[in-house]
Write a structure and sequence with these properties.
Elements: H1 27-56, H2 65-96
Length: 105
């Protein structure tokens, strides 16, 4: 039969410190990973934006073909510009990670 007392539920000593755990991630490394994530998400975003005109087919107000083609071409240009910007940022980021003596990590 249990006596109603709980067993010792204290945390281990290494978890009892008043300081929160520190996760040290270098700012440049974190930024680079987020840029790579954005580059990976870009095709999915583009596909979703290109599929939106399929929903216009069932709208009450018809959309002219010229407006639809302008939309699709605009999305294409936007994707190219965003991809070019991401490539430039990733390339610049790679050069800033080089060691001071000129060698790459």
């Amino acid at each position: 039969m249990t006596s109603g007392r709980r067993e010792d539920t204290r945390l281990p000593a290494r978890w009892e410190s008043s300081d929160p755990p520190s996760f040290s991630v270098e700012r440049q490394s974190f930024r680079r990973r987020r840029l790579v994530d954005a580059a990976c998400a870009l095709p999915l975003i583009g596909m979703i934006l290109w599929l939106l005109p399929l929903l216009w087919y069932r709208s009450e107000v018809p959309v002219s073909t010229s407006h639809a083609l302008t939309y699709i071409f605009g999305i294409w240009v936007g994707l190219v510009l965003v991809a070019a910007r991401l490539v430039r940022l990733l390339t610049l980021d790679r050069f800033t990670e080089a060691e001071p003596d000129g060698t790459d990590r």
